[in-house]
């Protein structure tokens, strides 16, 4: 008689082996799928195995086609803002037609004509789609990418259910946790260093890590025929932030034709509601407009005449000004509820993914997005007071007021030297190396300021005086020319703030701080948050709340960071030397904070952001320095920078006994010109010298010492 264990093993061994075999089959299938994707999707192009004959069926299955092309990259660079006009579209589509595969993909959509075009810049780590609505196969988006493009797309994300929220760029932000954890989709990279072509289904989600593109939206003739027959009408408005981008709103002209077409195209839809009565229409006209969310790739206006005036009457705009474009179906056909804020909708969309995973907490580990509970959000909204401009900050428990610099005694002694050096840079004194003089003078435009001999300095003397490393003057000149070109381009194309940061401001900081080596660093801190205990208070008792700043320049020498950790080991709050616990700011003291805005962004809001951020910084310094709260004054004053498009301006934030002053001083330079770039670089190097020779010794004396 067999023992019980042996009987159990005898009975269950086939099942165990079957499960192992099944797991092996699944693993092999997944490996095969990954291998197939690697074969089909090369970094620079779709595999040559996809021919012109099966290209359209490939696109319909995968929702994407791309091909690196130096010709297209060069065209994008040469066209600039002209790419948004009729001639730009024509030249681009002539190059597309030379790609037989691409031509066969877009051909079915060309009969309906070009609907509209838009610009799109980098926003690393965030996945966007043009829409998340179903049944968008009648639309296609064709992108012309500049050189240096790095993308990542979520393979087959256009298929099935989608979750997301409208973003400020006019696209739909699809949470990465939903794509990866819920839909189990694979991310595939695209790198077109020479520039190139990208064709995507409007529902496909992708992230732009580097690059700039013009997108062209085409639609099939079926939809266009309704417009040509006069059954659909459109009202087109223009964004004040970006005149080259239209907001398109649906207007019913013959509802019976529209309903018939919708039911014919989408028979699975429930019966549409009856048209509203005259009373309802009157009430709707008098009702206050609600902000809206981009919902679907709806049929655009008939006209393909792409003329974009420099300015538009702001009163002629639609209800909301996203940076790319919005679509909204007629409210009588698709009624909608009042919309929450973008932040609330993003939290809700992310929280909705827990319905698929069964555990909302599983999403919080994602580096791309976090989940905030409704109860926590409600509590936070009750205890915070938003500061949208400097007027709001005058109601702070310790008021923050803005003043104009009229006398040097408004500044503390520790920053007077910095102000004088900054004023010299603004006045074109000592801004550029003499070794690059001929190249600079040869490339000056008629709008550039005239440079005298006082504008130039000797690199060797500067390096010796400031105790920094040297650099190649001609390499610097070439890099600054590129930044000046990009600044002009960003202004003409009305790029978003993240695009300005990635293409203009961050490379400029790289150049300026290079001589300081590892002693200074700069960081993108757009996602850093202030630790709550260091937020300022409103007179009502709530915490002051404002958006965060964009960049920080930090002290980063390894020896200093070691001393910081030693100091934190003795502190009650040992999370960070700064007022935020975001890495790497925990061990690198902030010396300078920078807030950027697009050219027509709110300067007052930028000042409020800087003020809330830096007063929180001062509060943390007071805590570490051991200064009593009865004498809330910390020296030195802290320099802060406000960048409006390409224009850089210096402020100082000075802490006083009764109030905090934001002192506006001088505009430094405009990076749209090579001279302006040199002014800003010289200014940033003066800031770096101040950070090392004035601020760092003060920090050791007042904060880091035992």
Structural commentary:
The protein contains 21 helices and 25 strands. The chain has 706 residues and is α+β, with helices and mostly antiparallel strands. Helix 2 packs across helix 5 (100-110). Mean pLDDT is 75; it is low at 224-255, 261-273, 275-382 and 627-633.
Keyword list:
alpha+beta; globular; 706 residues; 25 strands; single chain
Tell me the count of domains.
3
Low-confidence stretches: 224-255, 261-273, 275-382, 627-633
What is the number of beta strands?
25
Radius of gyration: 29 Å
Q: Which overall shape is indicated by the principal axes computed on the Cα atoms? A: globular
Mean of all residue-level pLDDT scores: 75
Major sheet attributes: 7 strands, mixed
- Give the CA-CA distance, first to last residue: 79 Å
- What is the topology, as strand order, of the major beta sheet? 16-25-24-23-22-21-19
Beta-strand share of residues: 15-25%
Helix content: 25-40%
Topology overview:
Layout: H1 4-40, H2 55-62, E1 64-68, H3 70-79, H4 86-97, H5 100-110, E2 114-120, E3 127-129, E4 139-145, E5 149-154, E6 165-166, E7 172-174, H6 176-182, E8 187-192, E9 196-200, E10 206-210, E11 213-219, H7 221-228, E12 232-238, E13 246-252, H8 255-265, H9 278-286, E14 327-328, H10 342-352, H11 354-357, H12 374-382, E15 384-386, H13 390-393, E16 400-404, H14 413-426, E17 432-433, H15 437-442, E18 456-457, H16 459-466, H17 473-492, H18 497-513, E19 520-524, E20 543-545, E21 551-555, H19 558-569, E22 590-597, H20 603-625, E23 638-644, E24 647-655, E25 660-670, H21 674-704
Parallel strand pairs: 13-14, 15-20, 16-25, 17-18, 22-23
Antiparallel strand pairs: 1-9, 2-11, 3-7, 4-9, 4-11, 5-8, 5-10, 6-7, 12-13, 19-21, 21-22, 23-24, 24-25
Helix pairs in contact: 2-5, 3-4, 14-21, 17-18, 17-21, 18-21
